[in-house]
Predict the 3D structure of the following.
Amino acid sequence: MRTSDLTRLGMAIALVIVQGCAQAPVEPAPEQEQQPVEAAPEITLNLPAETDCVCDAVGEDGSEADYTFLEKGYAALAVADYAEAQSYFERYRRLESSAVADWEADIALALMLTLPESPIYDPKEARKRFRDLNEQDWRAMALHQQTLLARQSLDGFLVMSRRVRELRESNEALKEDLQKREEAIKRLRELTLGQTGAAQ
């Protein structure tokens, strides 16, 4: 056979093979057994029922109050960063600019006045400010929970402060009474000794 015949024969065989592959039916892959999909069990959370949160208080202009600086102030106060806390409380009052924000910032600052380590420590001023703040209608305000805790702390401070003042006054009265008794005993002793000397 000539080379050209061999080439033609090779091409014919290749053509037959290609056609056979193209026409051969493709056998589908055996189907995998499909497992039935089970529905995921529903998770029930034992969460408390929703309650009204004072954190979503609405400002006088209808917008919600932003407690970011108030909360940052209390966080700074908790770690005794008094300058930072004071700055945050004042910034909160300035940015919110409402009667509620003013009251909340003033309560926080009054609380700082009761802390001996605070640079603005002044218990007398704290008592005065708290009395003034307490006279306002704070119960009608939607106050942050930390503000309510601060108010309770100040109330406790005021009660203890009053008790300490009463004890000091009582102590002073007892000192005066003791001094008068000592003077009376001294005079009585002098009189007794004088009478004894006269009798001799």
